[in-house]
Amino acid sequence: MKTIVLLLMAAAVISISGSTSIAYAAEGDAAASSDSLKILGAGLAFGLAAFGAGIGLGQVGAAGLAVISENPALQSKVFIFVGMVESIAIYGIVMMFIILGQ
Q1: Rounded Cα distance, 60 and 64, in Å
Q2: pLDDT digits (tens, 9 = 90+) for 1-42
């Protein structure tokens, strides 16, 4: 629980500092503001996807270890579930590259 609170506090600090830099960029050049919003969006896309995948992987990994300890023959099925959870982070990377490529 402490980790989640610390991550939310860090996200708030980053968003506050990001909004001040966006305000300064609006005074100068509109293209710089657009680029900074792209970078912010790409970072959020990947960061939130990786955060969600990490939480899911913790849950699936713990349950998977329990299943493997009960019945080692189910190891391949556990790896399939772990791969499905890890694919969420891969989708985040793909979205990051799509956002930065525009």
Answers
A1: 6
A2: 656 555 555 665 566 655 555 555 555 566 667 788 889 989
Q: How far apart are CA 12 and CA 86, in angstroms?
A: 26
Give long-range contacts, CB 8 A cutoff, 24+ apart: 82-87.
Answer: 82/57, 85/53, 85/56, 85/57, 85/60, 86/53, 86/57
Tell me the CA distances in angstroms from 8 to 3, 13, 17, 48, one per residue in order: 9, 9, 14, 11
Q: Are 86 and 54 a contacting pair, CB within 8 Å?
A: no
CATH T-level fold of 2-101: F1FO ATP Synthase (1.20.20)
pLDDT > 90: what percent of the chain?
57
Distance CA 69, CA 36 (A): 48
